[in-house]
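For reference, the entry.
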Amino acid sequence: MKKKLGIGSRINHSEHGKGVVTNVDSRMYWVTFIDNGLETIPFDEDFEVIAAAEDEVDTVSFYEVEKSLRSILKKWSDVSEIVPIADKFKGGTLVLKPKDVSLSEKEIPIDTFFHKVVMLRDRLRVMEQKINSSKTLEDQDKVELQQYITRCYGSLTTFNVLFKNNSQQFKGDSSKK
């Protein structure tokens, strides 16, 4: 196995020409070539090493670190992620119309309503984390409270139509197994 090159190493590639290694991840080099710009090159690809950098190689890319940090922050803080509304509802209005025609209807910008639904979801997640990390609750109490939260998520699945990304939707207790 060839020794991995460090950031700053210079190479000559048969197809892309001369370049400098600007990032290294777990599978490939990110090389900025003089003529072709940024390209990714697998470790096992054939190229000439002009000058190898002596630095230790960190095989975790900035992207992977950023992704992990985002996941940790999402899991353990009350910072909410940016959740886009489905395109078909952007700029729309939610109208609440009472049965009694003598009463006036209420219009709410759907973006405002969606923001409140997302805030509710985020607060349920924080509550879930606080329950899980509680030192004073018994395990049975934690399970029971978790079940209530899951049912709350299930009650909110009606609003999934508002979410642009399926991965951000509510998921309740599924009877289909």
About this structure: The beta strands are 10-13, 17-24, 28-33, 37-42, 48-51, 93-96, 106-109.
